[in-house]
Amino acid sequence: MKSSTSEALWGYFFILPQAIGLIGFAMVPLILAFALSLMQWDGFGARTFVGLDNFIGQFKDPDFNIAVVNTLYYTVLTVPTGIILSMLVAVGLNKVKGKVLYRLFYFMPNITMSVAVAVVFMWLLNGDFGLINLYLRDWFGIQGPQWLTDTRFVIPAISLLSVWVGLGGSMVLFLAGLQGISATYYEAAEIDGANKWQQLRHITIPLLSPTTFFVTIISIISSFQVFDQSFVMTGGGPAKASYTMVFHIYDSAFVDFTFGKSTAAAVILFVIILVLTLIQMRISKRWVHYEG
Question: Disulfide check for 159: which of 78, 121, 214, 248 has CB 3.0–4.6 Å away?
Answer without folding.
Answer: 78
